[in-house]
Amino acid sequence: MEFLLQPLTLLTFFPLLGVIVLLFMNSEAKTAIRWVAMVTSLLTFGVSLWVLLQFNASNPDLQLVAKYSWINVAGWNIYYYLAVDGLSILLVLLTAFLTPISLLSTWTAVEDRVKDFMIFFLLLEVGMMGVFLAQDLFMFYVFWEFTLVPMYFLIGLWGGPRRIYAAVKFFLYTMAGSILMLVAILWLGIYGNTFSVPDLIAKGAIPANIQWWLFLAFTAAFAIKVPMWPLHSWLPDAHVEAPTAGSVILAGVLLKMGTYGFLRFNIPLFPEATVKAAPWIALFATIGIIYGAAVSYAQQDVKKLVAYSSVSHLGFVMLGMFALNVQGVSGAILQMINHGISTGALFLLIGMVYEQTHTRDIKVYGGLWKVMPVFGTIMLISSLSSMGLPGLNGFVGEFTILLGAFGSKAIGNPWYAGISAIGVIMAAVYILYMFQKMFLGPAGEITHHHELKDLNWREILTVAPLLILMFWIGLYPAPFFNLIAPAVEKLVSALPL
Amino acid sequence: MHLSEAVNSGFFFLAPWLVFAPLTGLLINLIFSKWFKFSEKMVGTVASLASGAAFVVSVLLAYSVSINHGEMMRWHLAEWIHIGTLELDWTFRMDSLSTTMMLVVSGVGTLIHIYAIGYMHEDVRFKKEEGRFTRFFIFLNLFIAAMMILVSGDSYMMLFVGWEGVGLCSFLLIGFWYEMDTLARPSWANSNAAKKAFITNRVGDFGFLIAGFLMFWYLGSFQFDEVFEAAKTAPDGIIVAITLFMLVGVAGKSAQIPLYIWLPDAMAGPTPVSALIHAATMVTAGVYLVTRSAEIYTLVPQAQYIVAMTGAGTALFAATIAVGQYDIKKVLAYSTISQLGFMVAAVGMGAYVAGMFHLITHAFFKALLFLSAGSVILGMERGHHHLAHHAAHDDHGKGKKKEGKKEDHGHDEHGEVFDPGDMRNMGGLRKTMPVTFWLYMIGTLALAGIFPFAGFWSKDEILLDASLHFTSIYWQLTLAAFMTAFYMGRQVWMVFFGKPRHEAAAHAEESPKVMTVPLMVLAALSVLGGALNLPFEGFHNLGHWLGYTLAEVESLPLDLKVAGISTVLALAAIFTSWWIYGRNPLKAGQIDPLKKPLGFIFTGMENKWFVDEGYFAIIINPFKKASQFLADVIDWRFWHDFVHDTVILGTYNWLSEIALNNYADQKGIDRFANWLGEATQSVSATLRKVQNGFVRSYALSVMLGVVLILGYLIFK
Question: What is the pTM of this model?
Answer without folding.
Answer: 0.90
